[in-house]
Amino acid sequence: MSVGEFLVSGSQTIETPRRHLLNLWTETAECHLGHLHMLLTAKDLLTAGHDVTFYVGEFPSEFWNQTEYRRREDSYKVASAVLDTFFGRAVARYGHVRLAHDQVLRATKAYAQLMLDIYPNDSKLGKYPGLAEPLLTELRRAFKKPWGGVDSPFVAICALYAQQEKVDALLIAERHKYIADTISYFAKHYLNYTLGVVVLQNFKNDKGLPMSGNDGAIRMQDPFNYVEHLLETIDPRNAEMLLKECERYLFHRSETTATFEAWWNGRKGPDADRNTFLGRLKKIFDDYKDRYYSAIPETSVETSQRINNSRMLKYTELTLRAWDDATKPPIDVGAVDPEVDRDAENFHGAYYGPMFDAVGAHFRKYENDALGFGKEVVDALLELTERNKTTDMLLFFNSRKVHRDHYVHTFNVAALGQFLLDLHVQGAVQLKTHVAELLKCKEHDVEVTWWLTAMLHDHAYPLYSMMTWLQRLESLRKAFPAQMDTFTKLAKAHVSEVDQVVDSQILEPIKESVTRQAFGLGLLWERTRDDRKKLFWFLSEEDAQALTDNPAIDHGYAAVLNIAFRLKPLLARIKDKPLMRQLMRGILFHTMGHILGRKVVIDWKTDPLAYLLSVCDEVQEWSRRGMQDDGSLRPTRSELLVGPLYRRYDSEDRWQLPINRALDVTVKYFDVEDVKRWNSHDFHTAKGKIFTRLTNSSGGGMPALRLSYALASQLYPKPKA
User: Fold this and answer.
1) Strand arrangement, sheet containing 20-25
2) Do 280 and 243 touch, CB atoms closer than 8 A?
3) pLDDT tier at 402 (50, 70, 90 boundaries)?
4) In the CATH hierarchy, which top-level class contains the domain 3-200?
5) 220 versus 611: which is more confidently predicted?
6) Which residues, in sequence order, are bridge partners of residue 198?
7) Domain boundaries, the chain
């Protein structure tokens, strides 16, 4: 089929091989069926061997409205990216015209003089040979437009650009023919440059008018049910006319007009079925949207995302729906009580329990034995996570650190990590895709491993507390030998509370030590020595031996120890499996900064989940409830600000980090009491203990991080009581 079938004029131009055609794509990212008709025609021209360039938006120039250009520049970037993606090659240009100042000035003055001479009367037409109707009316119509007035450089710059780029003809829709004719005439008159005009037939709407943004356009960004509703509600004759336009310009482009008319008049069966037609049209809509969403670049409009309790609850609900769109929301995220941001303690049952249950229910359906996550393994790990509420027991015995909430903290660490994994980073690819490539698995495998790692990273705090307590009792029994029975009663009472949390192979030696009134951890380390060396397969031989000889009193080590013994019967199914390695190393390294005096460095390339856990665990400061030195329990009133991020349009809540930008994370406090402990030096020194252990030898995926803190003032004026 010849492209000429769809042209009003200009078919002789494209009969010559390899012509360069220019379309002035004044629209931005919006695309209606009329635009699609133009794109499909351009694709046909490219297939036929011609060159087609789309110039998007205004030409930036000191003679043009810079404010308007800058206001819409982001949309030009988006449109250019979409066009290039649609054609699979670079066809779009915007904002990079290099025209000399005096050249543009002279051309603009010449255009202004032309318009002043021909409008509003014919007295000076003699200066312009060949300027007659209907061209004269078209130029006068252009003069009345803002872009075609005597003060506008648009026509002059277009003509100069066409000459500079060696354009043979303008490709334009029929309803805009007068624009192309004006530019073409000026190019010939002022530059003596022949610029042809190729005019594409209008794609008409249901009213029989040219489809345009202001007059009944069917936009492909709109929900498809708009089209279905339109065809159901308009006059049947108009609906039939619209169907015919769609069939001709979208589905029967390869046929001659005569062949198409014969098909249309004789169609029957599926060809005449409305639902069949709608199915074909929807496929076109979906295909365009897929191209559009995959092409959206970052823009210049930066924002920071607020991270707090309510935000993480809502984001996790979104994540659950992304995993399984049939999932019933565990909570009504539209009605989350804002008080949860002040203190989450009162919402364990209402929000956090259902959320943990929903995540666990999804994971119980997950199975990937090849990566170390067979059903028995996942069930065993989930059983440990279900004991997370007991994590907050007994910690007051450890005087070196005030008691802090770990139940909500565990949830927030997991949700924050999911937010970061979902970020579009280098190459507009999500961070979890980079991790999946590093670990040679799928994105959802990464998500499952991450959530299990985050949910288990603090689960053994009761064991860690008991270890600390038993060590302390070992000293106390020497200082106060007459109180041995009292110490034994205290120890037995608390050891009995951790039966459901700590594996029996660890707990039994501890119980025996208490019964013997020996206290300390010597018996535990003696009984488990051989197993510990074998079960710590995820470490280098040197590190595994070091921790066998010198076990750590550390809650990360306690967690890994507990998991290792819980999974001991399944060792053959998890050993050397990459994702289990990530889980175990992630939990261990999030607290263990040194092994045998050697600093533990966490490399993104080899331990991405340990890296992510270290980051999320350290910055999860907001609303964390803790026992203060005065014995009171209160939350830290704060939130995170994460940026700079640009909203992407391809999903409900997805964000793009600008290329080559660090991710700024600010801890914003709302109570001066919480920030008194910090000065700038102390804050960065404290955070640096973790963050200076991080490195990225792969150079890809995880962006650099920059931390800061801030204190928000009270509202001024203060709200009335």
Assistant:
1) 7-9, 196-200, 169-173, 20-25, 51-56, 92-93
2) no
3) very low
4) alpha beta
5) 611
6) 171
7) 3-200, 225-295, 303-459+607-711, 461-597
